[in-house]
Structure formats: structure tokens, C-alpha cells
Specification:
binds adenosine-5'-triphosphate, nucleotide-binding, globular, membrane, 242 residues, 7 helices, six-stranded mixed sheet, translocase, Rossmann fold, binds magnesium ion, ATP binding, 2 domains
């Protein structure tokens, strides 16, 4: 199963008189991994919510898999900073919630994919933060989404768990072929996971930087160069290039 292409055409979003995103034009190719970066409040989460159908646009078009997004759609899944599990349901039951056919065997298989086999009957409260995010990932992946949207899902995790989760997300993305859009404050994480890093500032796309490295994106001098370039872009405004 392949990921869907995402096309944003002249996309504008205002909350009342507050213009957050202005005339955004962006294509994310089918199966591509794109990271959105930018200062706090620049509209990254708003952009993800627009793509998912959780928030309505003010103007423009959001086309996913050739269709205009009008509402929430199970083919497009969203993972938040907080795992948002139901504490009164077991791990397995939480994963089943994401399944259109409520299939237990599939839920068990997906839990295995995220490395949580044996924890099916545990309560969310008894899991670590990283394990809870794995459950949330399993719940998002059980329906085999075409697009996975991640809004800083690793920012609350310790550094080591975070590295493990980055590798897990990369592996699942490579195996399952969904299109990935990730919001992160961590430039290293963006360069590690993304084929392209998009910087948003003042409602516009200020940088659209392909990461031309062989996967896995290691920690060599080229990676460091990319990280510096993106960090410089976040720190000081540049000319709009899109
Ligand atoms: N539901 C809402 N109603 C009104 N304003 C909102 C709403 N959601 C977001 N905003 C405003 O839109 C702007 C962009 O918010 P958004 O959450 O998209 O930023 P962000 O880039 O994700 O920030 P952060 O990095 O801190 O998560 C902010 O000024 C925010 O206050
Ligand atoms: Mg946000």
C-alpha cells in the first residue's frame, strides 16, 4: 500500500483576524517524509491539523490522494505530543480503537511491529512515556494509513528513548510506505527523519530544503551542514523561496 501525495494550493488559515498561514503552496510526494520546523506559534500544528481535516481552512485547497480534504478521514492519522490513550482500556483495547474492523489479531500484529508484544494486557498508566507513544503509533498504524502526521510526538521523551523511537518511525515508514509529515523543534530529528525540511515563518514557507543523504542519515559532516543551514534559517529570516 502506498502513501498519498499531499498538495496544498494557496492555502490560507486565519483564526478570526489573526492570519496564521498565508498562501501556502507545498507538495509532499507519495511516500515522502517531510519535516516542518519553525519558531513556536508559526503555525506548524495548524498546518498538520488542516491536512488531517481537524481544522477548516480559510482559503485555498488541501488535496490528499487526489481528493479535497473536508473532514477527518481514517486514511490520514495524527499522532500528538501526548499519547492520548484511554487509561481505563488495556494496551490491546487502545490499539483496537484505531481499527475499522476491531480485529484483535491485527492489533496484536501491529503491537509486535512497534516492539510491544507481551504488553497487550497492560494498562497505559503502567507503561513508560516511550511505550505509551508506541501504543499510540500502533493505534495510528493499525488502519494502514496513507498519511501519518506527527506533531512533536517525541518531544516529551528522554534522549535515548527518542533515538529509539526515531529509528522505529523510520523503519515503519520504510516498510509501510505511508507519506510522513512530522513537526519537530529538534533540527537533528528533522534531518534524521526527513527527505525534505520545510521552514515556516510569518505564515509563509521560508525554506524548502531537500536532504540529499543516503539513509539512515548519519552524523557525518554533510548532516551537520544541513542542520546548521536549517538552524540558521530558523534563527534569522531569509528570502521567501516558494
Ligand atoms: N484554535 C485556535 N484559535 C485561535 N488561535 C489559535 C488556535 N490554534 C492556534 N492558534 C494560534 O495560531 C498560531 C499558530 O499556532 P500553532 O499551534 O499552529 O503553532 P505551532 O507552530 O504549532 O507552535 P508550537 O511550536 O508552540 O507548537 C498561534 O499564534 C496560536 O495562538
Ligand atoms: Mg505546535
Amino acid at each position: 500500500m502506498n502513501g498519498y501525495e499531499i498538495n496544498l494550493h494557496h492555502l490560507t488559515k486565519a483564526y478570526g483576524s489573526h492570519l496564521v498561514l498565508q498562501d501556502i503552496n507545498l507538495t509532499v510526494q507519495a511516500g515522502e517524509s517531510v519535516a516542518l520546523v519553525g519558531k513556536s506559534g508559526c503555525g506548524k500544528s495548524t498546518l498538520l491539523r488542516l491536512i488531517s481535516g481537524l481544522t477548516s481552512k480559510t482559503q485555498g485547497h488541501i488535496i490528499v490522494g487526489g481528493r479535497e480534504v473536508c473532514a477527518v478521514n481514517p486514511e490520514i492519522r495524527f499522532l500528538f505530543q501526548n499519547a492520548r490513550l484511554l487509561p481505563w482500556k488495556t494496551v490491546l483495547e487502545n490499539v483496537i480503537l484505531g481499527s475499522p474492523d476491531r480485529d484483535q489479531d491485527t492489533a496484536r500484529r501491529v503491537l509486535q511491529e512497534v516492539g510491544l508484544q507481551g504488553r497487550e494486557d497492560a494498562w497505559p498508566g503502567d507503561l513508560s512515556g516511550g511505550q505509551q507513544q508506541r501504543v499510540a503509533l500502533a493505534r495510528a498504524l493499525i488502519g494502514r494509513p496513507r498519511v501519518l502526521l506527527l506533531d512533536e510526538p517525541l518531544s516529551a521523551l528522554d534522549a535515548l528513548t527518542r533515538l529509539h523511537m526515531q529509528r522505529l518511525i523510520e523503519r515503519l515508514w520504510q516498510e509501510l510506505g505511508f507519506t510522513l509529515v512530522l513537526v519537530t523543534h529538534d533540527v537533528s530529528e528533522a534531518v534524521y527523519l526527513a527527505d525534505r525540511v520545510v521552514l515556516i515563518e510569518d505564515g509563509h514557507i521560508r525554506m524548502n530544503q531537500p536532504i540529499e543523504l543516503v539513509r539512515p542519515h548519519g552524523k557525518g559532516p554533510e548532516t551537520i551542514q544541513y542542520e546548521k543551514r536549517i538552524l540558521n534559517g530558523i534563527m534569522k529570516p531569509q528570502k521567501k523561496i516558494v
